[in-house]
Amino acid sequence: MAVMVKMLSSPEEMPQSLPTFRKLVLIYPALQAVNFKVPSYQKYRGSNVPSILSTELMMKFYVAYALGMETVDYEELLRNSHWTDEVEANYHKYVNIENLPASSRDGAEISSSPNIKNPGLAKKVNKCFLNPLFSPLLAQDSVLKGLPDTYVLSAEMDPLRDDSFLLVNRLNKLGIRVRHRHWDGMDHGFMGVPSLYVNCHKGWREIVEYLEED
Known about the structure:
The chain is α/β, with parallel strands linked by helices.
């Protein structure tokens, strides 16, 4: 992802001769580095997550992709202090907590706006964070309408959980045929540990069946 962002400055620069894909499968995808006040990012912090992927670790991954060895204050990111008027005007609609199902919000704070904005932090991270090649949820409707039938898999105990719900909500509105398989009680990474999770085998079987459907 980082290499593509450096090579291509906008989706319009993508090669036009790519093959046409019939189906797309996304497994607990990371889709946006804009709204870190979504409930799943707020809930699965520190030791409050049963798997290797905590909110803090995901923050480190995003910052490493965007800035290399440079560091930032992760607490400020979790407060959305990197937001600007541009984010509010152009991108909030794509990552709005109100687009999540009630079961996902689970009493969380509805407002995504920061109490205090940090222009220095915004200048440092947003050139990369707001690029749709880095945060696909920020792509324009005209881009997402080009997606094929899509299968989205998400896990309950995962800071990335709400990204999937936001994408599914948006694809449904755009008329894209999307199937969302949400695994309650599962954590990020369960699909890669067949020795520990029976649901890993079930999950891959369901994906294969989906790909084989006409």
